[in-house]
Hints:
two-stranded antiparallel ribbon, 2 domains, mainly alpha
Amino acid sequence: MAHTGAGPAAKQAAAKAAAKALGGVGVTLGVAFGGLTALTALATAASRAVVVARKRSAGHVCPRCDGRKYHECSTCRGKRAIEWQPLKGPTMRRLCVCPTCGGKTGLQKCLNCVGQGFA
């Protein structure tokens, strides 16, 4: 009885063709989604620049920070540390670094204007 199936060379050729087709589809999708992502990023940056320019030209100073972009930390009130005691009857005073400002400056970025100085 004669063997009528495809030989190893034909199977390798079919596998290479399938891999090439799948690779082409993958590259096409990657380029399409990458291009769409880049286009969206550019459009977002452009629109943000227009909004910022209009707010600056209108002269609306942020009422929360008075245009300084930062204000006193609302957690530690500018002390850079908070009192924290895990025990009910503490025997000593325990100070911890403020988690909001990081204990560095006692200032926090204005949340009203997102640190831009105008709202």
